[in-house]
From TrEMBL:
Keywords in alphabetical order: Membrane, Transmembrane, Transmembrane helix
Protein name stated in the entry: PASTA domain-containing protein
Pfam families: PASTA (PF03793)
Organism listed in the record: Marinitoga aeolica
SUPFAM superfamilies xrefs: Penicillin-binding protein 2x (pbp-2x), c-terminal domain
Amino acid sequence: MKDLKKIMKKLTYNTIMFILGAISGGLILLLSVFVFVNSSSYVIVPEVKGESKDTAIKALKEIGLIPLIQGIGNKVLYTEPSAGERVKKGRHIFVQLGKIESLKVPDLIGVPVEVAEQFLTSYNLNYKIIKIYNSDEKIETVIDMDPKPGTIVEKRDTILLKISSSEVNK
């Protein structure tokens, strides 16, 4: 009976010590993983939207990120994670490529206002008309533009058309 009590006492003691050791070991392992994971350096994803494929790859690799290219085309449409996000060095960054057609402001100087309106509308460009009194030019024709012809713009940008008129902004 005395031996059984001794064995039970020893077994209980050993079980408690085993549990405490396992808990302590687990905490030490968890702390080590936490310190290791958080010791990695972070970088900010650069803005490469609209850049060429080669420029984007170079910019991402320079700061320790791994670009994964998706799509076809010559320009970067977007990245995932987005520009400005804080990520760990060595992270994969998805780079979506596409074809970006740049629009140039057409030379509409001397063109009747109706034709200029149709042309800008067909290219998804907004426009605003300012009438300028001018007796020397043909009435209702474009005499100046802003931005100037040849300037690169985006779809839905607004083009200011200055139109010769016998009346002023009525």
